[in-house]
Amino acid sequence: MLEFAILGLLHEAPMHGYELRKRLFDMLGTLRAFSYGSLYPTLRRLLKAGLIVEDDPSEPDDERAARTWGKRGKRVYKLSAEGKERFAEMLADVGPQAYDDEGFGVHMAFFSRTPAEIRMRILEGRRRRVEERREGLRSSVARAGEQIDRYTRELHRLGLEHSEREVRWLNELIATEQREQKERQDGVE
Amino acid sequence: MLEFAILGLLHEAPMHGYELRKRLFDMLGTLRAFSYGSLYPTLRRLLKAGLIVEDDPSEPDDERAARTWGKRGKRVYKLSAEGKERFAEMLADVGPQAYDDEGFGVHMAFFSRTPAEIRMRILEGRRRRVEERREGLRSSVARAGEQIDRYTRELHRLGLEHSEREVRWLNELIATEQREQKERQDGVE
DNA sequence: GGTCACTATATCGCGCCGATACATCAGAGA
DNA sequence: TCTCTGATGTATCGGCGCGATATAGTGACC
């Protein structure tokens, strides 16, 4: 997931670790924080795999100000051709991880770079997933009184409300996507 | 967190791994699944630490039916004195992990075994945490139009709604707790 | 007799977190 | 001028938990 996010973000511009982390935080908020303890090792891994390369180009005087540093701070990374390719593959490969809480959020944050058809698949897969959760919680909450711990039931009540709300939210998004797709088609014809 | 959950569950009765996992799933639902890949190693660790002991007592003919097995399946664990102590310590030690999404859910699932005072601390800490998130998302959503990616904003909108709803839910819980505490005091006096 | 779903234990690799350490730099305030 | 704080920046370590996978006994249905 972090790999996906890094590759996605580097499409915008070359960046160093700290910046990546901030951008990520802005996009995902508390949904997914990604600590430095995973960020830097992942960067290393991507570097070794050749998916990103160090952008070290002895200063093209272009925004020189940022890197006043002393002896080698700031390591700026940019996407390699292989990295671009890999990101495209990951976009196309819509697995179950794209439907769970964290994976879905990360995927959605990159929807602007995601083909409409794949956006649709993810949105609908997510909806199915949340509907299942909702049904489970529904029956748990309905199976009232008897046996279930009171606090557990409260927990399930909140979960149920969240699920219901998210399904509605997804329905709106899906409707919007469909409307826009139709407009695109009408525009072409 | 898993350690906490296992120790908490074993207060009810001795159990084997599979059963622990099912009970856990029933309590936390999709909030926190805990796979076998973490459950069994954790059980081992707790065993080695002496917090749980194997309950191997050559059949007290008490529910014999369940263990028809052949050659040693089913390893039943029960709490040791140290385990009980440890759980009590973990209950009393309310750190930031008790306020985040997953930790809070697990703690709340064991509220029936948690002193009222600590329940209060956790509830209020969680509320503070969620309010912070809410404020962050609020300003992000309000800072409309300009610059922010459309899908990212949708993500933040949903997050905001969830935060608002959870704060309300927490307020109710806290109010209930306070009411009950008052009743307890009145009853005593 | 087959096969299906459930019960049950276990391991492996690896992604990610939290804590921690260590630097530089900008601005505020004494 | 000095110092302190807070943001910027890179990095490592131990350990938790996940997903995939292997193995196997049990009960029920057809």
Automatic annotation (TrEMBL), chains A, B:
SUPFAM superfamilies: Winged helix' DNA-binding domain. Residues 6-88 form the Transcription regulator PadR N-terminal domain. The keyword Coiled coil applies. Residues 120-180 form a coiled coil. Keywords: Coiled coil, DNA-binding. It holds the Pfam family PadR. The keyword Coiled coil applies. One of its GO terms (molecular function) is DNA binding. This is DNA-binding PadR family transcriptional regulator.
